[in-house]
Amino acid sequence: MRDECDDVASFRRRACAQPNMATSLGSNTYNRQNWEDSDFPILCQTCLGENPYIRMTKEKYGKECKICARPFTVFRWCPGVRMRFKKTEVCQTCSKMKNVCQTCLLDLEYGLPIQVRDTSLSIKDDMPRSDVNREYYTQNKEREIQNSDGTRPLGILGKSQSPSDMLLKLARTTPYYKRNLPHICSFWVKGECRRGEECPYRHEKPTDPEDPLADQNIKDRYYGINDPVADKLLKRASTMPRLELPEDKSITTLYVGGLGENVTDSDLRNHFYQFGEIRAITLVERQQCAFVQFVTREGAELAVEKSFNKLVINGLRLVVKWGRVQTARGPDAQEGFSEMGTRLHPVPGLPTTLPPASALEEEASANYFNLDPSISPALMNISLPPNPPAPGFLQPMCPPPPPPPTGLRPPGHIHYPSQDPHRMGAHAAVRHSD
């Protein structure tokens, strides 16, 4: 009888040492009705990668969810070349309850931590953490997911219609593939890695252990408590610059920069027309900017309030600022500044500014031969003797005109090089006259 009691006690100790035995694959099957079996994961664009022909491995009931501790289907894939393999960490029920990615646990719409999203939207969703309450809460949410279309968030998050300004300012518009880089090689840090370029891990200096970003917990990120990444983003949002209104009430023009090649005039008009009547839109393709001029000052102020630091068109975050008064450049204009008030940097290699032409040079006649202005124009109109014909050609029948009298030409004054008697190859008539 004592031996049987010892066997029962040992069996109970072994059962207590294996708390997941009731949910294992070899146990009873009545507990598997709440296990997840999916065909494709819920991922953000960053975790999915840039390769459109990605391949995944699927393991049915591969691991337990790190939030609700229920088995779920695990997917594993490589998001790109020289990237580390990634896998799903939480089940799809937990992902749908918070509208987050199954791998990075960031919001699917804005790419921000849950703590930042809930703070900006003033959402206070207290999810239970104890085993019994969490299971009951999860079952109710699953029932709600089955009754919905599955395309919208649940609970308080699904009821929030308009996003806040802070979310639009902090939201990431493009994927951040650096999050998929391999981990740092621990052997390289010790100086013992012998793989060289074939090592699949990064050979970079690790982050400081005292840095708050070095200590991240997946549960803290999911529940939105003590997330170091969220604290960093909230501090950045509090220190963001604000655009002040110009004192000149006549300014109704907005500067829009960073357009790129895909943003057109119609895209700008489709966005800014909702704030007021637009007078003109000037698109400067060379500088990739545009100037949007409103008819009223109220429309321009409303456009700045709704667009500053949160305007995204065709995947590009655009810069919105107030324009300046365009005045003609005069003597009061500052040197080195454009008409819009921006500083112009000097271009190397360009010539310096030429001095202004004097009044005497502008009034002087065009004396191309440097002739003496005291000579009469009649004396300057002197025809020179023709050149001797080339050998083989006949002499012209008409005799050459006689040389001009010597008295008509001032002595010692030479107008052309051919009239110099000491010059080699001078004409005989010039020598004879001299």
Overview of this structure, please?
With 434 residues, this protein is α+β, with helices and mostly antiparallel strands. It has helices at 2-17, 45-48, 92-98, 114-121, 131-147, 155-159, 165-170, 186-190, 218-223, 228-238, 265-272, 297-307, 359-363, 377-380, 428-433, and strands at residues 56-64, 71-77, 86-87, 253-257, 278-284, 289-294, 311-313, 316-322. Helix 3 (92-98) crosses helix 5 (131-147). The protein is elongated. The N and C termini lie far apart (157 Å). The relative contact order is 0.07.
Termini Cα gap: 157 Å
The coarse overall form would be elongated
Strand content: 5-15%
Mean pLDDT: 76
Calculate Rg over CA atoms.
43 Å
Throw out a few tags for this protein.
single chain, 434 residues, alpha+beta, three-stranded antiparallel β-sheet, 27% helix, elongated, disordered N terminus
